[in-house]
Amino acid sequence: MTMHSTLQRAFANRCVLKVISGLNNFDAASVAATVKAAEFGGATFVDIAADSSLVQLAKNLTNLPVCVSAVEPDKFVQAVAAGADLIEIGNFDSFYAQGRRFEAEEVLALTKQTRVLLPEITLSVTVPHILELDRQVELAEELVKAGADIIQTEGGTSSNPVHPGTLGLIEKAAPTLAAAYEISRAVTVPVLCASGISSVTAPLAIAAGAAGVGVGSAINQLNNEVAMIAAVRGLVEALATATVLSEK
């Protein structure tokens, strides 16, 4: 596996920001707005649905590495042929509201199937937050053995903050932060902390052991391009501060 040089540097420096448009978001205008915000805001890479036309759209809008997400391995093949730089099994959050669960055995099977189809592409795999924390750690270790190059955590959809403001943002991120802390100490590959992350909690993710964060709704649900770019820049600055502090 050869990781994109931009990603290698960012993971080594533990300052990765992945901007997510959504695994089930096939709206070209929405995806374009998110990709532009990532580009102008200084993100590390973008994560879009595994769709060839969206990959081509993103490639025309940015020089950032383009990741595609899916839960069906076959979808990755065409997306990679269209120019995707890396792939992600996961971003499961959009499925939970439908009652769709992803258990450890299925995620591991998807990873193995994907590796057979695409043995060389950089592969990120999400560990489902519905699993007990110790089982999340076990699964992460199994996924790395099966060929995962990056492990992503999640948990924002299961969190129900009871406080407003900063305290609420920390409560929202608690499940994915806990997973990042435990998993980062068990695997040798980079851990990306996603789902429920904000500029407040991005530095906490780095302190917990993550090499970066993935952020979706905090950016793509904003209603104008200027606000989206500002949100990305705020996250980039938060990560830069966290990296400086971790080096002291």
TrEMBL record:
A Pfam family matched in the record: DUF561
Full protein name: DUF561 domain-containing protein
